[in-house]
Write a structure and sequence with these properties.
This protein has helices at residues 12-32, 39-65, 71-94, 100-120, 130-147, 155-193. With 194 residues, it is mainly alpha-helical.
Length: 194
């Protein structure tokens, strides 16, 4: 039986993931430039956030399509995602544009899910659900709307999008806890029956 070929850590999917991490401080610089209120700096911050968000979708597709999945990528990808989203939420809260409770709820959920992944890792991996993917998409849209210098008539659209993101964040977090507990208890039963 032949061993599958080793995937090099330095591949296009991982380079895109690392570029997303590198873009986080660039994004923060642009967000806070000139007190965070200049229209052009905000548009630049939005553009960097949008590019970084697109790389998240592209790197995962490339890794799956071309067999470029590595242990490094499995760890670095969610870290890059959380760094980008977390930086945007904290930055918007520091600028007084987003209530801190929203940032805290989303951050607690993301940290909790990360800890749950480590808790169940011996028993298996919980794949991303459709709800989790929808949560990520709505979070990105909501953050993007908050980053844009919207006319006052469109601000309610950003607020509704952010509340939808918070609801999806909480609901999918609860779903993840339930699935983690089921996976772990199945693993314990399997060990007991062995």
């Amino acid at each position: 039986m032949t061993e599958p070929p080793r995937v090099p850590v330095l591949n296009i999917a991982n380079v895109l993931t690392m570029s997303r991490l590198v873009l986080v401080p660039v994004f923060l610089y642009l967000l806070f430039a000139d007190g965070g209120q200049d229209r052009w700096w905000r548009l630049a911050a939005f553009a960097v956030f949008a590019v970084a968000s697109v790389t998240d979708h592209v790197d995962g597709n490339l890794a799956r399509k071309h067999g470029l999945i590595t242990d490094f990528g499995k760890i670095a990808d969610p870290i890059a995602d959380k760094a980008l989203t977390g930086a945007a939420l904290v930055g918007l809260s520091l600028l007084g544009e987003l209530p801190w409770w929203i940032t805290v709820v989303i951050a607690v959920r993301e940290l909790g899910v990360t800890l749950l992944r480590f808790w169940v890792i011996r028993h298996g991996v919980i794949p991303a659900s459709r709800g989790g993917k929808a949560k990520t998409l709505v979070q990105i849209i909501a953050i993007g709307l908050y980053l844009l210098p919207l006319p006052s008539g469109l601000v309610p659209v950003a607020v509704v999008a952010m509340y939808a993101a918070v609801v999806l964040t909480v609901v999918t977090g609860i779903d993840y806890v339930v699935r983690a507990i089921r996976l772990r208890s199945r693993g314990k039963r399997a060990v007991a029956g062995a």
